[in-house]
Specification:
Elements lengths: L1 H6 L3 H9 L1 E7 L2 E6 L7 H13 L4 E4 L8 H9 L1
């Protein structure tokens, strides 16, 4: 999704996906996420609209209660260390 957001020039969406969203589960048509306090308040709506435009189908975005998840950016930093 991050690469697709970048390709579609949706930089705000890309930024939130990298730094503020923690992916719990990803399936065709369904995404489970958690997020930090910095997430844009319109993120879910924007992601839902963008996914529909990009794929032509509706996606279910649900909030996960799973703990110990990391953002893409956090994982990237940990791999460097």
């Amino acid at each position: 999704m991050i690469k697709l957001a970048e390709k579609k020039k949706e930089m705000e969406l890309k930024y939130d996906l990298e730094r503020n969203v923690k992916l719990a589960k990803f399936e065709d048509g369904k995404i489970d996420i958690s997020f930090n306090e910095n997430l844009n308040k319109n993120f879910i709506k924007k992601l839902s609209q963008s996914l529909f435009e990009w794929t032509g189908k509706r996606w279910i975005i649900s909030l996960s209660k799973e703990e110990n998840l990391r953002t893409f950016h956090q994982e990237k930093l940990e791999k460097k260390e």
